[in-house]
Amino acid sequence: MVGRIHSFETLGAVDGPGLRFVIFMQGCPLKCKYCQNRDTWDMHGGTSYGVNEVLEKILRYKNYIVPHGGVTISGGEPLLQAKFLIKLFRELKSLGINTCIDTSGSFDITNDIKELINLTDLFLLDIKCINNGKCIDLTGISNEKELAFAKYLSHNDKHFWIRQVLVPGITDDEKDLLKLREFIASLKCVDKIEVLGYHDLGKFKWENLGVKYPLENFRTANADDVKRAKEILGIKWNEN
Q1: Beta bridge partners of 223
Q2: pLDDT band at residue 1, thresholds of 50, 70 and 90?
Q3: Computed from CA positions of residues 186, 195, 224, 166, in that sequence, does the dihedral angle turn out positive or negative?
Q4: Which domains does the chain carry?
Q5: Nearest CA-CA partner of 1 in 83, 106, 95, 72
Q6: Which of 34, 87, 133, 205 has the greatest CB tally within 10 Å of its CB?
Q7: What are 210-221's pLDDT values in tens digits?
């Protein structure tokens, strides 16, 4: 069993609690217009690694990531390679290493996905946009499965953070943010809500691939934008 991996980050500090060994998986079915990792979309890109090869890399940093951090799988979209992650997470759990997945959740809840969820300590769930029409325009797919994924995590007492990328003019509408707040209030086990201000630092990756950057005419989010969104969502401004 091999997984296709785009890259590794050895000591990440923003993708879950504590210091994390972050693995960026290759391949993504979404087409997010603000994607920072446009080069991860190709299902056939990246490099193939076996579970033992990945474990060897992780264990070099075990003393840094245990007990307060762990391993975070990002992407791309990790759930595309659920079978590989099941095998990896079984090994990590046996070693007492915390497991986390950063995902859109835009998948059917299959038996493989259920098993992977059971092996995962924390999810970072990206709610692309609570407004379905805007979500389809922004990502190319409906938000129905990601919202169902959130409900499944809640029903099964799985802890997760909710992330919202704030794109001025698209995902910052007050009515949508209030609807998101209402949806979050219906869930259990949401440990944190993060508002991530949109930036265009990944624009060069689109350009390097010879692809037009879709949000060329949209401004980046500033601190006031993020503060306003947090207030609407009921998040205290001084929270990290």
Answers
A1: none
A2: confident
A3: negative
A4: 2-233 (3.20.20.70)
A5: 83
A6: 34
A7: 999 999 999 999
User: Per the structure block, which two tokens stand in for 135?
Assistant: 């979500």
Quick one: average pLDDT of 115-130?
A: 98
Alpha helices in the chain (DSSP H): 51-59, 62-65, 82-94, 111-118, 132-139, 144-155, 174-185, 203-208, 223-233
214 phi/psi in degrees, rounded to 5:
-70, -30
Cβ atoms within 10 Å, residue 44: 7
- What dihedral do alpha carbons 215, 219, 222, 227 form, nearest 10°? -70
Q: How confident is the model at residue 238 (pLDDT cuts 50, 70, 90)?
A: very low
Tell me, what DSSP letter sits at residue 97? -
Q: What region, left, alpha or beta, does residue 95 occupy, with left being phi > 0 and alpha being psi -120 to 50 degrees? A: alpha
Helix (H, G, I), strand (E, B) or coil at 98: coil
**pTM listed for this prediction:** 0.96
Asked if the model's pLDDT at residue 111 lies above 60, the reply is yes
| pLDDT interval class at 61 (50, 70, 90) | very high
Q: 154 burial class (0-12, 13-18, 19+ CB within 10 angstroms)?
A: middle
Q: What pairs with residue 165 in β-bridges?
A: 196
Size of the chain in residues: 240
Does residue 83 sit in helix, strand or coil? helix
Measured in whole angstroms, the distance separating CA 14 from the mean position of its chain's CA atoms is: 11
Could you report how far apart the first and last alpha carbons of the chain are, in Å? Answer: 38
- What pLDDT, on a 0 to 100 scale, did the predictor assign at position 9? 97
